[in-house]
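Possible regression after last week's pipeline update?

I re-ran a chain I had predicted before the update to compare outputs. Posting the input and the new output here so someone can diff against the archived version. Not blocking, just want to make sure nothing changed silently.
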Amino acid sequence: MRGVAVVVGGLLVIGGATVVVLADQQRAAEVAQLHERVEQATERLDDIGDENLSLAAQLTALRSQIAEQDAALTDTAGFMQ
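New output (post-update):
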């Protein structure tokens, strides 16, 4: 009877260790996947930031052009020509 208990106990220990190892491997895989997603999101944010800077430069140029045209339209006396 003792032999059976030792064998069953050994199998339970081996089974438990296997479950722990598999769970750790799965957790490590999920952590790696999350790191990859964070990296992709960071790259997208960098690309969006670069695009925003380009659009901001275009907007600034358009605003100064509008300001010049607005100044020309408000010059009713014709002195600015």
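Follow-up from reviewer: compared with the archived run. The chain has a mean pLDDT of 90. Marking as no regression found.
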